[in-house]
Specification:
alpha+beta, 10 helices, 370 residues, 21% strand, 5-stranded mixed sheet, 4-stranded antiparallel sheet
Length: 370
């Protein structure tokens, strides 16, 4: 049951991991395929580059894709309308939510649509191949006119292939006015999750104000245990690292907690419990942080400046986008950040310095290619 969902209150999930008498589940023998789409980090960085932004998702994406007739027999189910009705056997003819291969099969079909368009419409082809994360579209254009043209062409092409785009959002009222009100999102907020079934708390795009905001309503019990701490803190999702000064504290705390080798349901020692309550008060302020989505890329001369530093507890890197402005000033915008806890094994200052610089270099590569 998805009580917070506007369109799909009830989602049927078939358990492909269920093992029959022979011990082999369907998922254990299915291939999962490779990731064809860019990762969420890359998509979000690109999402910040255009003045006009828009998002949508594909309605019931999996159910639009037929399984080969020879393979449908492996997706058989039994069902009856009521307890008094006879049990009937059915086979599922489309890609099924809950099977290991479903995400790949669905994204592969979408990706093929992009490949088919490479010669006829390179802009829409790139949009399909580079701006979808599973069934969610996050993209943009330099102007409202270009965005409207892209949306119209993309919608028609995908509609012809059975993929209907809905829940449209945009920071441009002009763009939204050209989309049927039936297909505009009920809320201006787009919650960004790491996967299709996640309940992560964190980054949200408010399209009306065109800002990133944070939803961090984490409820910890009075007696915090290792289990409750890990369960709640693992839900925090900050893919671009805007909350790095806060989240690095959680990572350090997690490492210190793990070293104590406590039982999962043992209360935290008083010193750590007090320390965590202090963190919680700090996190209450996070919801007031607003990050502009657009980095104001009015100049084609954008340089990325990366910085890194380390301490005995952690190390981090941050990347800024630097652009010259027409009035002679320079605009500096936070692009992304990232952190890790320091290894427990003692290392020399020289080795530590090399590690941190390699970390920044590896972090800079996906930011540059985005």
């Amino acid at each position: 049951m998805k009580g917070d969902s506007v369109s799909t209150k009830l989602r049927v999930v078939f358990d492909g991991t269920c093992k029959p008498s022979n011990g082999n589940s369907l998922n254990s023998i299915l291939g999962i395929g490779k990731m064809l789409q860019p990762d969420l980090f890359t998509i979000l960085v690109k999402f910040r580059l255009n003045e006009i932004a828009f998002s949508a998702d594909i309605q019931q994406m999996y159910r639009q894709i037929l399984i080969d007739q020879e393979d449908q027999k492996f997706q058989r189910i039994v069902w009856r309308e009521s307890k008094d009705s006879p049990i009937r056997e059915y086979k599922l003819c489309t890609v099924t939510y809950g099977t290991a291969s479903a995400p790949y099969l669905a994204t592969r079909c979408l990706f093929q649509t992009g490949l088919d368009l490479e010669r006829d419409d390179s802009a829409v082809s790139s949009l399909i191949k580079e701006s979808f994360y599973i069934d969610d579209l996050m993209a943009g254009a330099p102007s409202s006119e270009e965005a409207i043209s892209l949306i119209k062409t993309l919608s028609n092409i995908l509609e012809a292939r059975g993929f209907h785009l809905r829940k449209w959002r945009s920071n441009s009222s002009e763009v939204l006015s050209r989309i049927s009100s039936n297909w505009v999102g009920d809320s201006s907020n787009l919650e960004i999750h790491p996967d299709e079934c996640s309940k992560a708390l964190g980054l949200t795009w408010n399209s009306m104000k065109d800002i990133f905001i944070f939803n961090l309503k984490v409820n910890f019990p009075d007696n915090i245990t290792k289990r409750s701490f890990l369960s709640q803190s693992a839900r925090l999702f900050d893919p671009l690292g805007f909350l790095t000064p806060c989240t690095v504290s959680i990572k350090i705390f997690y490492q210190q907690l793990w070293l104590l080798k406590l039982d999962w349901d043992s209360p935290l020692p008083e010193a750590l419990a007090t320390k965590w309550k202090t963190f919680q008060k700090e996190f209450e302020q996070v919801c007031s942080i607003h990050i502009p989505r657009w980095i104001h890329t009015t100049s084609k001369q954008i340089t990325l400046h990366g910085f890194c530093d380390a301490s005995e507890l952690a190390y981090a890197s941050v990347i800024y986008a630097v652009q010259p402005q027409a009035d002679g000033n320079t605009k500096v915008t936070l692009l992304v950040a990232k952190s890790r806890v320091a290894p427990l094994k003692s290392v020399s200052i020289q080795d530590w310095s090399s590690t941190v610089h390699c970390y920044l270099h590896a972090f800079m590569q996906p930011a540059r290619t985005s």
